[in-house]
């Protein structure tokens, strides 16, 4: 009996030790060999970014010219005011605008500059005196009697970052400075909204993050028209010649780009890189047959059918083989001899004066009729030189629209200086930079948070070190961009936001994330079960048996004691 | 063989046992990531649509807007510089001389087999400098997509061909542009390129997008750098083969989706000129189809883009027994005009073998005859100039018709020919035989043989033999680069002297490697392709070749530059090989997993029982006889035993 007892104890010991070996060695080994590599991601920082609190700081300098403040007001003048404005866009996104307004009186040289005969000259002279940094504004307050501005104009917005503000007559006498300032404040704010950013622009730029409540159709169409922010754009000019047998077209695209487009793009260089090319497509036809309108003696295309125009052409335009940046297409369509002249009619059946139209986030088309350049008896093919000034005027206007440099109509009493040879005023560039920065930040945060969510949800995805690095650098750049926005350094903020968007997109679209093999759990178990079941069942059973034995023995002992 | 199977299956059993433990681990490395794609795409599309749905109705409604232009001339100063008043007027004689030039050409060669060989050539010449610092970006006749490729990847020369079918040199003679079955790509890069391999990889990906082909399957395992066989065809100043990459995809199927982008590169598309004949349902209903794009610099400042398309139509499949051929019958189109952009547009019909019209009848007849030296032979062609209205006659359309009268006549045998096959049996070893024929009656000439063999055929280079006329023929130059598993293929280049009127045989033995189970193609029992060998040679010419480059010549005779009068350049591709590799049963891993698990479980179970059970000696039960006896004894009332 004693030997049997020893034998039984040995068996129990063996079972327990096998179970211990399986648990201590087997399970960790299995765990280690089957786990996927997942590098560390800055999850807490990403979660912080999911709740975005953006602060936009704009510096405004208000300069009082002689005759706008009384001497006793003047004594208090060098002072600074800060105004905060808070907006809640949705539960995760909040905006705060901070306007730092500095007041001072004009220097002697500025006074001289303001004494120029016209506003444009004054603007230029003020610009040569001092150059204000990107993102800041200078508002010169000029007396009512000043002859710089026409009678019905209160505010003049120059080509650079300066504006002239005329002060009302009744404000000067017998008021304290504070009253004067409170009187001026709405005007200054209007100037700010025109020249740097307005709430509608910024919320439109946030559209990647925030589901907008359907506002007015007009404003949505405006915000949908411009291309989304991207580090680079490809601009392609295409000359469509459906009838090379009749028309031999020459266009000096090289010179035209140099003269008209390049200055604008040089100015826009901080926002994005641009590359330009052009091509000529022969036998490219529009997708609709124009109708002949005998009352006008010309062929017409209605605005309703414009949507079908592009499709057959687009197949031939070709995508850019060498980059993946968005392409802006500008097509110059010269109708064939049998369908000339061709005019576009808008919804009100009126002839469109420019004979051009554009499609949001795609590009523009201009129809260029050449039938006036030759008589009916002309010998085909006819050589035709295209007037590039006319064409480029249209394309430049479309380009500005598509890039988002749109001029919403200024408030009453505002006079906006025509943009100069660059085709873009400094403050327009600032405006674009504000909205692009916000848009980049919005897009990058969305990308990063959705990537983090995805990785969190699907545990099988391998996260390599380079992905983690990209994510971290995107997060750092985002934080920097937000911080720079807060301190009002627009240029740096844009730079960091571009870096953030690049890094986040590269992380999101990294092919290594696609290397996921999605094994359904049932298949995994089908493979594990033939091994695990026969191994684990005896262990479990013998463990159970040991337990029940021990319990029985304890009961016996208890019975013995009793 | 059975033993080999046994060993390999034992190996697999072992591998699979291991794989049980590492199933989830191997998830990282096994490629089919297709399942993952939608999962990862999900959030992105969501983020995009959120932006769009908000503005959807408005955007749809206002998608097209008339452009209001406030300032017609935004830049007054610049506008003044322009010759604005003069610009509007039609200028009949004005306009700068265009810097680009387009030519098109069709050569028709009736073959002795009764087939018809049609070779289209389109050439765009452009005076420009892609290597300039500021990129060339204004395209007229030259296709924009290719121009961007050249300037982005600093390409000096690019040759790409897609071929369906095999060119039968012995029946059809030499083609104007030789090409191997499948896809072939070879590129010379500028010497300014620092990382050639990376550039090559990007380039193949971009080209596969442009031509809708699987060129993205070109990687380091099928790319070689030939040292001598592929010299630049344009003007040369670099011949350092570090900047050359050559790859073939013998398996590539060529079809309509490759033809459409190819046609799109033509300035007239398929709307006018010779390209109207290219209807894909007819072109691919042929014995041989090859389309190619060749880009090369022809002078320091001008580039040439040559698009060629070669088709051999089988007379017997479509001729309904009648030996008659016409443009309409073959292409289901006739010609009505030249491409208006082309400076020359011609059709050549090879009538050399038919001087008196005894072999076939050609209509409409043309008075224009031209003699060209091509492929070492002087040939006579009837020429139809499409830029002349008279060519189209009164019906305003040209429908060439060839009606055969007799089927006799013999062809001038091509002087150089190559063949290749795999010998051996079983799935372990084999032997590659390459035969090179020199049919020249009295001249011997050297040829360069290039062989690129994938790594999974392990060449035993010590078994390389070259014999001609039963004697050992020692190559005067051998360049051999051994393969690295899963990294690069074998490259074997040799310069062999072919004796007159002889067959030279090159043999090399190989062993088949075992692939990993993810490396097999979806249809592994079909076999694995090995690209064609390339035989390049300067073949002695019977007639004096034309070495004058500047002289205007038809396109088909000016493809390979000719340096000396006495010889001409020929490239011959052999057949691609189809080799069977040992193929496992792909459901085996799971079976093996189950089997091994069962074996392990049985062994483990008995061991476990031995270790944990306690054994006791039991009283042996009495035997059957004894029990029976006891029963009987009990019945009798006698005490049991």
Automatic annotation (TrEMBL), chain A:
It is found in: Endoplasmic reticulum membrane. Signal peptide: none annotated. InterPro entries: PtdIno-glycan_biosynth_class_S. Its main location: endoplasmic reticulum. GO terms for biological process: attachment of GPI anchor to protein; GPI anchor biosynthetic process. The keyword Ribosomal protein does not apply. Pfam families: PIG-S. GO terms for cellular component: GPI-anchor transamidase complex. Belongs to the PIGS family. This is GPI transamidase component PIG-S. It comes from Pleuronectes platessa (European plaice). The lineage of its organism: Eukaryota, Metazoa, Chordata, Craniata, Vertebrata.
